[in-house]
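Quick start: what a row looks like.
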Amino acid sequence: MLSYLQITSLTILGIFFATYFIKSVYMKLFLLLTSLLLLTNLSAKESDYSIIIDKKFDNKLLDISQDYDRDISAVGFTKKYKTHNTAQSFSDPFEYLKSINGAYGTQMQLIKANDIGKIIMDKSSSLSQFSEAIAIAKTPANGYYIGGHSMDGEIILLKLDANANLIFKKVFGTKNIDKLNNIIRLNDGGVLAIGTSTTSRNFSDPLFKTGLGLNDIFLTRFSVSGRELWSKKYGTHHDDMGIDAVEAYDGSIIVIGKTIYDDNRDISMMRIDENGNKIWIKNISNKISTTPYKIIRLRDNRFLMSLSQADNMAKEQIRLIKFDLQKNIIIDKKIHTTYSSALKDIKEYADGGLVGVGYVRDGYNTDALIMMLDSNLKLLYQTHFGEESYDTLNAVTILHNSQAAAAGIYTYSNSQEANMWIIKLNRDATIAQKSTNSNNFYEMLYTLYKDEIKTKQIKIKRDLSIEFIDERLYFNAGKYQLTKTQKLFLDKFSKKLLPLLDKYRTQVKTLEVNGHTSSEWANTSFSERYLKNEKLSLNRSYATLSYMFNTQDEQTKQWLVKVLKGSGYSYSKNISFNKVENRELSRRVSFKIILNETK
């Protein structure tokens, strides 16, 4: 038998292990809940602003911008193949190949979508070269600069008007293989093209006498009229790639690139003047795999660069470097994630917050990654989105209403073909809702109140006005105080209406609460009768509005302040049948939803 001391020792040991186990479980649950709050895998709903443009073969969107008319434009490329007309016969195979030249291949693609998620422009280029559109920038006339490259190594710059009609086309580069990575709109209205050029050893090359290494950073500057101002190469005797650039407040330009040699993967930062002359160069040496993606100028006139860098387990981790115009590094921060992650684009909000998009990879599955950070690069929200295949976001732009729009690639499960993808995001990294026109809103209201409509309590019109038609909901003559029945119905009515309007709050301009009266008022003149009824209608509107407002929580009240409007119509909109006024039905309140204008 066990002694008292042994039993006591075992008991204490058991309590210790039980306590440790409970604490361990709680700690794991805490960490799990924390991770779930910070990292969410989104699922698309029908009302989400997530547009997947499904065409044959692989298609991609690589850059995105908001137009001045609030629409969203994105560029990328599609692969288009046409079946040749077999009715025509060829004896010479070279004649056959000539006949199908330009009939298929990769084509620049411009997509434009409006606020309700409808594609209103879908244009591919008529260029004979197989070409990929890489970048888009707006012109002052709401047109576009679109940059890309052809399969045979030429760089292409298009200027289009607002309807995507061609203003000019510039084809430039060396006689070797050149590749565009981005175009940057400059303060003078022109653009800077940045990319990579294979070294030329041809001394008769009119653009470059020689190259610096295997590949070189390649910059070309154009005026607003499309005149080429200068083209220059930069780099080392190793393999250099031009990644991105941004204009500083003083007109100089910060360029980032990548240099590969031996086991090194260096990041290059270079400042040049407006004529392309070097001011300073800074290299960040790395023995591990490092990829720069984006540089932006911040509102404090400093710069932020987004990179991915492999950790000890060869897993990609996000790295953000903030520096100033004199190449001083202010913040160098790594964001450690569970899976391999990268931010391919970043943008800054007016309050200094940041949105970043890219990808997160786990085994063979790649999802789109969305991150929200504060001005000190602290992670606030993180979500990823996609199916069990390959999904990624390549570019992001901040919209006028503080939402963001991103463009990328979406692949359905069990599919091998990539599709063009546009998505809208809220500040908490959730998917924004599509705007809706009045017809769609009418259908939603009709579905929401189908029971009340069926029992003839309310009537909804296509102009989004809502009338109470149950006789118990009318006011007595000269009265404006709400009855118990009216209050109970308003509670039920509000619990349905306000969550719907809140869900689409960016589209709701006004919720009107309108008071009405019948035309009678005993022993008064015409003017007195109108004015007394006007005051009564205002009182009915106010009684209804204030009751609805006061029964909501504080968060809802904060929003209602912006949209609620009370009005009194006196007897100007009384209810009549065959020109005979129905006084009982005229003593009422009505509601009207007014939406923001959409195309």
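That is the whole record. Confidence is low (pLDDT under 50) at residues 1-13, 25-40, 96-103. The two ends are 87 Å apart (CA to CA).
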